[in-house]
Design a protein that fits this description.
CATH topology: Pnp Oxidase, Chain A
Mean pLDDT: 90
Structural class: alpha+beta
Helix content: 25-40%
Low-confidence stretches: none
CATH architecture: Roll
Strand content: 25-35%
Number of domains: 1
Distance between the termini: 31 Å
CATH class: Mainly Beta
Strand order of the largest sheet: 2-1-5-6-7-4-3
Number of strands: 7
């Protein structure tokens, strides 16, 4: 992934936080027929290991990937940036639109897991993570006896041991300070969820830049 220095991720903890916040991943693997792409939620545990599950009939389960490198791509918030937000538009007109985004690439070794206990533990953890925001969180035990066990027969678990984490935080850092403030104001004024998240991340980036200048 092409990442100019000014678009570098703020640190490993920020990468892990984005994975937890946006767990729906694009998983790229290799097969005899070439590249395979799957889209699925992946759960990140405290040890930095990703886990997920796919249909037993999925091509992913038909080949041995244990020795192959895979990549999980996690897309964070993204937003269109209009030149109208740049104060320099009125001054020079030398501005163009762009797209701001945050993304994480997780490389690792994939392992297919055929273990009912492991699968149930994974499903329990993933469900608890996603249900945490609800007033009355749903649990596997809420389903009729035997129902979950029957569904589990149709899926298999996957686990990815992360070997490399990279990220790109494209938040208009290449713009002048006044244009960056304009982007922050423009994103904050909208109703789009992604835009508001981008605004929060942009604000954090600006605060970090100010603190860095203060220290220097």
């Amino acid at each position: 992934m092409y990442t100019p220095k000014h678009f570098s991720a703020p640190g490993e903890e920020a990468l892990l936080d984005l994975i937890r916040t946006y767990p729906f991943a694009t998983l790229v693997t290799t097969a005899a027929s070439g590249l395979e792409v799957n889209h699925l939620p992946l759960y990140l545990d405290d040890k930095g290991t990703l886990s997920g599950h796919v249909a037993r009939a999925n091509q992913l389960c038909q080949e041995t990937h244990g020795l192959n490198e895979v990549m999980a791509i996690f897309h964070g918030p993204h937003a269109y940036v209009t030149p109208a937000w740049y104060p320099t538009k009125a001054q020079t007109g030398r501005v163009v639109p762009t797209w701001n985004y945050v993304v994480v690439h997780a490389r690792g070794k994939l392992r297919v897991i055929e273990d009912a206990n492991w699968l149930r533990a994974h499903l329990t953890a993933l469900t608890a993570q996603q249900e945490a925001a609800f007033e009355q969180p749903w649990q596997l035990e809420d389903a009729p006896a035997g129902f979950i066990d029957k569904l589990m027969q149709a899926v298999v678990g996957i686990e990815i041991e992360i070997t490399e984490l990279t990220g790109k935080w494209k938040l208009s850092q290449n713009q002048s300070p006044e244009n960056q403030v304009g982007v922050l104001q423009g994103l904050s004024a909208g109703d789009d969820v992604h835009g508001r998240d981008m605004a929060a991340r942009k604000l954090a980036e600006l605060v970090k830049a100010v603190n860095r200048l203060t220290v220097e």
